[in-house]
Amino acid sequence: MIFKTLTALVTAVFLFVIANIGLETPLGLTIKQTIGTIPLADKSLHFLLLAVLSFLVNASMRRRRVNLLGINLLLGSLLVALGITLEEISQAFIPSRHFELMDMVCNYAGIYSGSFLLCLQKHQHSTYGGQNNRETFSLQTIFHRTRPLHDESGYGRSAAGSLGGHQSG
Question: Please, what sign has the CA dihedral across residues 62, 105, 51, 82?
Answer without folding.
Answer: negative
